[in-house]
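agent> Task received from the user: take the single chain below, predict its 3D structure, and emit structure tokens. No templates, no multimer pairing.
agent> Plan: (1) validate residues, (2) run structure prediction, (3) serialize to tokens, (4) report one or two observations.
agent> Step 1 OK, no nonstandard residues flagged.
tool_call: predict_structure(input=
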Amino acid sequence: MQSNSITMKFVSHPARGASFFLITVRAVIVLFAVVILWAALFMLSLPFVLLSEVLGWRKKHSQKRSEAGSIECGGANKREANSELIFDRRADVSKLFGCNTRKVEYRWDLFANRLEDIKRKTSAPRALDFGAGSLRDSCELVRQGFDVTSMDLDPQIMKRYFDSYDWTTAGASPRLYTDSIDQLGELVSPDYFDLAISFDVIEHLEQPELYLRGLRPLLRDDGYLFAIVPNRRSIFERYFKYSIAKQRKSGVAWTPGVPHLQFRSPEEWDQFIEANGFEVVEHDMAIGPLVNDVWQGMLGLPIRVYVAPALHRLANILHLPFNPGRFEEGFFPAWLMATADVLDSLLKPHTRNRFGWNLIVARRQLDVEHP
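)
tool_result: status=success, residues=371
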């Protein structure tokens, strides 16, 4: 009965049936190509995989990273059922210390070292979390003893996130702010903040230079800006750039703050930040190209764009359960990605400018034009 019903739908809507057939054929071809490429990459990687296991490199690498940074932050693991919230990082480690992505536990210490510098100089440091999102990093700054102002677009979403934390465990709570950076300058005095963080935010802005110029006078002379921004050379960023250009051309609207709108290389990000009143004092890179581009980009993107949507549509027609995310992740087991990350780390001196994320520490410039 069910197969007859499906057949009747396609017969009564031949154009729709033909479209579904073509999408399905394309998905099968792409999936076949992905499987072949996956097998070829695995065979090429196999000698290093075996060497890494024999010498214990993967386990040592993973253990070192797992010891750095806490995941829990005063109720940060609390999840809302069927939540429509985006950029939810409550159950992840703070990006002050790292990030769990691409099936790898990435950890870094350049921000933590500067935090200690600030706390040594100031007994009651103040921080601005620009683009605070799920408040994960705001919570960590509160735990670190900072007086925190959390800034983002939507007051309702910020309140929902705020209410999901147990701030008594964190020791204090941030102030929520949803107006412009210029208006914030009218509420606080110049040289107010010891630190501003902007993690995965600047690339979402239409005019990020306005934010930097508005932020600059709010920072103390020795205040820091911590920023995480993507590298336009990565496959994911190339795809995002293509997608947003296609949306602009077709006139399709997007949700403000969601798509990437800025695309720069590591060198171009340094130039951009320095052109807007800051000096870059430290710049590191994270998420290596083997994990990010070779495996997740070359294989994951075709699955996400062509294969998973077709399978999802077919599953809906057949009333079968299907999780597109889990299907894609099945191609990238954690042990394999951890091994690829070890090789990324070994090759970093030669492939640094192809890593996916820029980790930047900047300080406001002192000059006669900007006292």
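agent> Step 4: summary for the user.
The chain has two domains: 19-55+288-354, 71-285+355-371.
agent> Done.
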